[in-house]
């Protein structure tokens, strides 16, 4: 189930959303649509849902993803859930307030980059930890490339082509 949710949130939903966006707004820039939808699904959807799960069921992330069985880890996983929920909310909010998209994409790029590198540093990995690592690194690359291609400036404005 974990793999399916990752594939949907990290590949299928963004791709379908971009295709539908192109259909409804044929003149829209593909890179802009891709950044909007990648941020919505990868940062918003995935981190929001992960945050809820980590808050409600911290043992899953601790044991399955991080390989930690100690009960003391649950406090830290729950705190991670609060951070994921917060960043995910900003990512989802970009659908309503477009000026939230770039900050969410930047925050998501940093988060996924650091999380992916942290997973890389871990020696032994469970299958779920490998999925988390690969999807984190995938999100890092996708978001960083899209931010670069859209020419976003530090003030959030896009560069003129």
Count of discrete alpha- or pi-helical segments spanning 4 or more residues: 6
Q: Which spans of ≥5 residues are poorly predicted at pLDDT below 50?
A: none
Tell me the Rg in angstroms: 16 Å
Distance between the termini: 42 Å
Task: State which percent range the strand residues make up.
Answer: under 5%
Query: Would you count the extended β strands for me?
Result: 0
Number of domains: 1
Helix content: over 70%
The averaged pLDDT comes out at 90
The largest β sheet comes out as: none
Morphology call:
elongated
Order of helices and strands: HHHHHH
> Structural class, please?
mainly alpha
What's the gist of this structure?
By secondary structure, the protein is mainly α. The chain is built from 6 helices and no strands. The chain has one domain.
Write structural notes for this entry.
- There is one protein chain.
- The protein has one domain (2-150).
- The longest helix is centred in the N-terminal third of the chain and has 27 residues, at 30-56.
- The protein has helices at residues 2-24, 30-56, 58-65, 73-93, 101-121, 127-150.
- It is built from six helices and no strands.
- The N and C termini lie far apart (42 Å).
- With 161 residues, it is mainly α.
- The model has no long low-confidence stretch (mean pLDDT 90).
């Amino acid at each position: 189930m974990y793999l399916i949710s990752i594939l949907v949130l990290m590949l299928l939903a963004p791709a379908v959303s971009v295709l539908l966006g192109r259909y409804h707004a044929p003149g829209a820039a593909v890179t802009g649509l891709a950044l909007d939808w990648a941020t919505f699904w990868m940062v918003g959807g995935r981190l929001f849902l992960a945050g809820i799960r980590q808050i409600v069921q911290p043992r899953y992330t601790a044991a399955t993803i991080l390989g930690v069985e100690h009960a003391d880890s649950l406090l830290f996983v729950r705190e991670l859930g609060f951070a994921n929920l917060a960043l995910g909310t900003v990512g989802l909010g970009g659908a309503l307030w477009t000026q939230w998209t770039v900050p969410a994409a930047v925050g998501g790029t940093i988060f996924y980059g650091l999380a992916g590198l942290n997973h890389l540093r871990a020696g032994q990995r469970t299958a779920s930890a490998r999925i988390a690592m690969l999807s984190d690194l995938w999100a890092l690359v996708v978001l960083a490339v899209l931010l670069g291609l859209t020419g976003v400036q530090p003030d959030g404005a896009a560069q003129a082509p």
